[in-house]
Design brief:
single chain, 338 residues, alpha/beta, Uridine Diphospho-n-acetylenolpyruvylglucosamine Reductase, domain 2, Cytochrome p450, 2 domains, 6-stranded mixed beta sheet, two-stranded antiparallel ribbon, 8 strands
Length: 338
């Protein structure tokens, strides 16, 4: 059994040797992860795709209704915040997704592009205001996504430091003790989100939260706990992943000045480059654990009903069967399978 710490400094600096070791161990391997304990991990694009797409076999919920990966010692607030559209199977996944999509449609997200560009340009202009070198992570990579998400949801920009502090504590909760220390913060987060929803119900809210409340008032089938967990998901999942993608991409460009110059010479190449950064940097390393509903052979490994398995997204992105020379950063890569 392999023991992995995906939060270690060594992994962040160069994850490829560990990801290679995973794939060499097999398309499905048993690993020990912080918080989740012993689980199976799919490591190739073929097995990862099967885990993510075959919801009849790999469920996000256990038979008792609890989210796969939730441990017995975790209190009720964890179950509440974890009960969102990313942790439910059909038909609940589609039900919640359609409610969120309707709120997004009413919010006219595409019309926000000029405002998002303005936020990005302002932050870029301020990056070196305190001199050089500048702290890219704290002065840009964290501020940009949280600013856009605040604008989208209708949350006060003045609360950005609060959100970033919460997110930092959440991402550092990589052991049972640290997780338990995080619980008071989770209670604070839930109370904050409940207050924002209540303001919107009283007609004082704006943005996507107000639109979600409007859909709720029109009879949409969504509980109050699901409303809280949905806002929690939109606020924190989008924030951290974008921060990691921006900072990781700039880090790679700093190490590869020839690639930086190639991209700067023609910004029409940006779409291709972003796809490659998504594959190479991979801001989400693992999927949420799935519960195995029935005995099955996956990648030559016999999984038993009741086992837990996670999709190793970062490992699959480095699968040489899917992408030639996967450990090479190729901003012009086509096709790009990730």
């Amino acid at each position: 059994m392999l023991q992995l710490d995906l939060t270690s400094e060594d992994f962040f600096r160069d994850p490829r040797p560990q990801l290679r070791r995973l794939r060499e161990a097999g398309p499905v391997v048993e690993v020990k992860l912080p918080l989740f304990g012993r689980v199976w991990m799919a490591t190739t694009q073929e097995t990862v795709a099967r885990v993510l797409k075959d919801s009849a076999t790999f469920s996000l919920r256990k038979p008792d209704g609890n989210v796969a990966g939730i441990r017995w010692w975790m209190p009720g607030i964890v179950r509440t915040l974890a009960s969102n559209m990313l942790t439910v199977d059909e038909p609940d996944h589609t039900r919640l997704r359609e409610i969120v999509e309707e709120a997004f449609r009413r919010r006219a997200v595409l019309e926000m592009e000029p405002r998002i560009r303005s936020i990005a340009e302002t932050l870029a202009g301020d990056l070196f205001a305190q001199g050089s070198p500048a702290d890219l992570v704290n002065r840009y990579a964290r501020l940009l996504p949280v600013s856009v998400i605040c604008e989208l949801l209708g949350l006060p920009l003045a609360d950005r430091p609060k959100f970033m502090g919460w997110a930092a504590r959440a991402t550092s909760a990589n052991s049972a003790i640290r997780f338990l220390r995080m619980l008071p913060t989770m209670v604070t987060m839930r109370r904050y989100l409940e207050r924002q929803l209540e303001h919107a119900r009283q007609g004082q809210g704006t943005g996507l939260i107000a639109e979600l409340v409007a859909v709720e008032k029109e009879g949409a089938p969504i509980t109050r706990d699901e409303m809280v967990s949905t806002i929690f998901l939109l606020l924190f999942a989008g924030h951290e992943t974008t921060t990691h993608l921006i900072s990781g991409s700039v880090f790679e460009l700093a190490k590869n000045p020839a690639l930086r110059d190639w991209l700067a010479a023609d910004w029409s190449r940006a779409d291709l480059a972003v796809e490659e950064f998504l594959r190479f940097v991979c801001p989400v390393q693992l999927s949420k654990p799935r519960y195995v509903r029935q005995d099955i052979d996956l990648g030559g490994v016999q999984l038993k009903r009741g086992d837990q398995i996670t999709a190793g997204l970062a490992s699959a992105n480095m699968d040489p069967v899917a992408n030639p020379q996967p450990e090479k950063l190729d901003l012009a890569r086509k096709p790009n399978r990730h």
